[in-house]
Sequence to fold (138 residues):
Amino acid sequence: MNNRPGPILEDTNNEYWRNSREGRLSLQSCGACEIYLFPARVLCPNCWTDTNLQWQAAKGVGIVFAYSVVHRTPAREFNDSQPYVVAIIELSEGVRMVSNVVECDPASVYVGMPVEARFEHHGEYSLPVFVPTIDEKS
Fold:
């Protein structure tokens, strides 16, 4: 796991990765039109402001919007975790992000499954991953 590639840090996403290292999921929001943005941007795609963008804590809950179970990865850095679930998670704030669904049998994942965020620590960075809510694990 330690050989996995890390994030590419840019001015627009430094705050996101800093919060992730501290175990907090955060989203950029636009104070002018009150929408959440993901991934982070330099301009709001809705109202085009560049002066009213801020970071806010996300609730860290959502549903599986779409997913795929990876049984054979082309990247050897991920061989130790096969099979694994790559999913698009629709957060309660309305944005979608790509992540992994963990701590469950990959065959049990389904579209609409309620999930909540956790963090996997990989050296200098931490990745948000999602686990089924308690009701879904049983």
About this structure: The domain at 59-138 is CATH 2.40.50 (OB fold (Dihydrolipoamide Acetyltransferase, E2P)).
